[in-house]
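A quick aside before the break. I want you to see a complete sequence-to-structure record at least once, exactly as it would be stored in a machine-readable document. Don't worry about memorizing anything.
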Amino acid sequence: MGGIVEDGLLDQGVSMESLADITLKSIWISSAAALLVFATGFPTSFALAGLPRRRFEFLIGVFEVLIGVPTTVIGLLLYMLIYPKGPFGPLGLLYTPQAVVLGEFLVALPVAVTLTARHVYELKAVLTELVLGLGGSENQVHRLLARELTPVLLSAYVASFSRAIGELGAALIVGGGIEGFTNVLTTAIYMETSIGDYEQAIQLGLALIGIVAVVAVAIKALGVRGEWRSG
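That is the input. The structure line, written in tokens, reads:
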């Protein structure tokens, strides 16, 4: 494995791997990470919304702090868990696409929780008082809450994807930037810049900017739609 990783890290550019291949790989890896965020972050937000106000604010503060943790630190912590002699070393995750997915997941999770938890907390309090006051049930509260939060959840998913696909530190540390295997747009930009192939690095950067721009438009559209529905 060490030889494979070394060859990947020292490889002269991405000549054997096309821009389209790297872009598609980046999209599916980041989509998988965002899906994991959706599966764990949003239930976490709903769980936080059931806490007393003081505990809720404290835990939201913790997630807000986690957003600011350097991604290289997150990558290092994950590396210590999955390297061959680590607790999860036998799973063989180090320098695999799955490791990159996990790294991006850990980077994006605090973003999703902070974006959704406060919305859930405030809306749940209002809907619970309204629905139960009109003789409704808890199930009706949950159904109505899910419907009203749909734009927020979609926006948080897209934001998580955007955060994941633009991440470098964790992807490089646990993925290694191995050509044709774990090389994504951010690690490919780093590799190309390090060997002086600035033309290829610019092309990769433009591809990444294009994806992020599309994501930004999607977030804006979802936000406008959410405002229209609540108006």
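Two observations worth writing down. DSSP finds nine helices and no strands in the chain. Residues 2-230 form a domain with the MetI-like fold fold (CATH 1.10.3720.10). We'll return to this after the break.
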